[in-house]
């Protein structure tokens, strides 16, 4: 039985205060039963902002912090901010690889500074999920490692946007181990439901709640979180999962026999451990 004392968290949602539905999406999430949400910074370009220097990331991050402030009037919201791996690829094309590297590296430093100030609870980084040149791939990995080092120093979580190939989890786990990050701090965003596999790796899966994924995850255990990667883009409605998805699928799973206890792990114990927050109603 679903009880109203269960918190329900979406581990990765975007809110675009400039061109998206903004708080309408948050209200939809809340009305479906959602109580907690991690709002992740959008790539600068998607908010209509240009990055000419790393300092320009402050405006991008501030927009995320403002969305979190507004969302906190409806649910409990937190910010995870950083530089999307595709931004490095784009900057490298227009400014050359060295300048792009310096901008992204400093952008990540600024993101970690927001964590230190208590404005955000984690850093977003990763590497391209599509084929790139060997040089871009190598430097993307170096930037991701830099972000991990920052998170190790701050004792905070990192959300990783990466490819999802056969050996991805092993590869990320190895890099995270070298950075000395504990397994619960290394969150694979947009994760397939590889819950069992990740139990033995330095990775914590944030499972994308697409069709069949929750059922698959639940069959493998309870060491995972759930997300929609809702993009809040008015021009692409239905391109990704909507704000209601995580609460709706959680309740549906409980109705059809998954013990509610398992979801106390998924929506409360796991995020508490990963982010060092208190998840309470
Ligand atoms: Zn996302």
Question: How would you classify the quaternary structure?
Answer: single chain
CATH top level assignment: Alpha Beta
How does the helix and strand content classify structurally?
alpha/beta
Task: Return residue spans where pLDDT drops below 50 for at least 5 consecutive residues.
Answer: none
Rg estimate, integer Å: 18 Å
- Overall geometry comes to globular
Q: How far is the first residue's CA from the last residue's CA?
A: 18 Å
DSSP helical segment count: 10
Q: Write down the overall mean pLDDT.
A: 96
CATH architecture descriptor text:
Alpha-Beta Barrel
Largest sheet: 8 strands, parallel
Bound small molecules, deduplicated: zinc ion
Number of DSSP strand runs? 8
Estimated share of beta-strand residues: 5-15%
Order of helices and strands: EHEHEHHEHEHEHEHEHH
């Amino acid at each position: 039985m679903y009880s109203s004392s269960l918190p329900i968290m979406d581990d990765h949602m975007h809110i675009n205060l400039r061109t998206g539905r903004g708080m309408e999406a948050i209200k939809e999430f809340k009305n479906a039963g959602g109580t907690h949400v991690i709002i992740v910074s959008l790539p600068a370009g998607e908010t209509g902002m240009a990055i000419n220097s790393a300092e320009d990331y402050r405006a991008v991050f501030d927009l995320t912090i403002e969305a979190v402030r507004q969302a906190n009037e409806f649910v409990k919201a937190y910010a995870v901010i950083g530089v999307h791996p595709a931004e490095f690829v784009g900057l490298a094309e227009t400014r050359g690889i060295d300048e792009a590297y310096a901008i992204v590296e400093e952008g990540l430093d600024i993101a970690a500074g927001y964590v230190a100030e208590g404005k955000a609870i984690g850093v977003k980084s990763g590497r391209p999920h599509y084929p790139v040149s060997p040089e871009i791939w190598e430097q993307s990995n170096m930037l991701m490692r830099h972000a991990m080092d920052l998170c190790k120093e701050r004792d905070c979580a990192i959300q990783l946007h990466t490819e999802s190939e056969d050996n991805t989890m092993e590869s990320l786990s190895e890099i995270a181990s070298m950075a000395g990050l504990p397994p619960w701090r290394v969150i694979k965003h947009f994760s397939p439901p590889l819950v069992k596999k990740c139990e033995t790796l330095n990775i914590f899966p944030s499972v994308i709640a697409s069709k069949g994924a929750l059922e698959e995850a639940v069959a493998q255990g309870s060491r995972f979180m759930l997300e929609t990667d809702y993009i809040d883009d008015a021009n692409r409605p239905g391109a990704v999962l909507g704000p209601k998805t995580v609460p709706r699928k959680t309740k549906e799973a409980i109705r059809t026999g998954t013990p509610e206890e398992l979801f106390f792990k998924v929506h409360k114990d796991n995020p508490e451990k990963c982010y060092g927050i208190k998840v309470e109603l």
